[in-house]
Design goal:
By secondary structure, the protein is an alpha+beta fold. It has two domains: 197 residues, BirA Bifunctional Protein, domain 2, CATH 3.30.930.10; 45 residues, Roll (SH3 type barrels). Strands 1-2-3-7-6-5-4 form a seven-stranded mixed β-sheet, sandwiched between helices. The longest helix is centred in the middle third of the chain and has 20 residues.
């Protein structure tokens, strides 16, 4: 797959308005971790898939993969993630965890806080977190996060990749996304700075993962706490009120029948009632 070049073109080879390209060198200047290996591409199938491939080929962690576009971007539960050329930040951070590989909820929660911090720092925009892995701005989803374990039993290698897709200036969405998808709406946002800031905050928060130091900030940025919601679990919809986020990052709810439940990622889908 082609690495990034200096020409401005869309994914079909046409011309686009000038924009600041993603750059390995510029990101490297801004990240705090000098050991971080950075690779930037024009187009990949998905940055998570590319991170897994690089890991399988023996790359030393940590690694940052970023791309101008994804041809088959992935979200949770097998959903696709719309990733047009040059209007978003599509990146994956690969690292070797010190905590259990099963701790995906906490890692995803930490990544959500890192994204909110980075957007605030770089763009001056306040966003909210829709449990567990979506970032919202002005009631529209502008970012999704996909955390996956990477296990190479042959080489006894265990890593985690955190995929992050941020709609920076995307305007045209497919019909099925128009009602809920949005973007930060600013083509002038420096995506290299945004990538570096996200990684810097993520690495800081991952260090505090066992102590869950990020959870209070996660709660304060929550879009759902105190709201009436509908969640789907095992094919069954249930009306509830989101009560809070527990010490493991799970969502606690009070169902319409008065019973309480604790929701974990991978089991449910969630939507906010308008």
């Amino acid at each position: 797959m082609p690495k990034i070049n200096n020409m401005s073109s869309d994914c079909n080879g046409g011309e686009t308005a000038f924009f600041e390209r993603l750059s390995e060198a510029k990101i490297a200047e801004l990240v705090e971790n000098e050991r971080l290996k950075i690779s930037v591409f024009d187009t990949v199938e998905s940055t998570n898939s590319e991170a897994k491939r690089i890991s399988a080929n023996g790359a030393s962690e940590p690694v940052l993969i970023a791309a101008e576009a994804q041809s088959a971007g992935r979200g949770r539960m097998g959903r696709s993630f719309y990733s047009p050329f040059g209007t978003g930040l599509y990146m994956s951070y690969l690292y070797k965890p010190e905590t259990a590989l099963s701790d995906n909820v906490a890692v995803t929660s930490a990544a959500a806080v890192a994204v909110v911090r980075a957007i605030r720092e770089v763009a001056g925009i306040e966003c909210q977190i829709k449990w567990v892995n979506d970032i919202y701005f002005e009631n529209r989803k502008i970012c999704g996060i996909l955390t996956e374990a990477v296990t190479d039993s042959k080489n006894d290698k265990h890593c985690v990749t955190v995929g992050i897709g941020i709609n920076v200036s995307t305007e045209a969405f497919p019909d099925e996304l128009k009602a809920k998808a949005g973007s930060l709406g600013k083509a002038t946002i420096d995506r290299n700075r945004l990538a570096a800031a996200t990684v810097n905050h993520l690495e800081t928060l991952i260090k505090g993962l066992p102590e869950r130091t990020f959870l209070e900030e996660y709660r304060s940025s929550s879009l759902v706490i105190g709201k009436h919601i509908v969640y789907t679990e095992n094919g069954r919809e249930t009306e509830a009120v989101a009560v809070g986020i527990d010490g493991n990052g799970a969502l606690t709810v009070k169902n319409h029948d008065g019973t309480e439940a604790v929701l974990n990622t991978g089991e449910i889908s969630l939507r906010i009632e308008q």
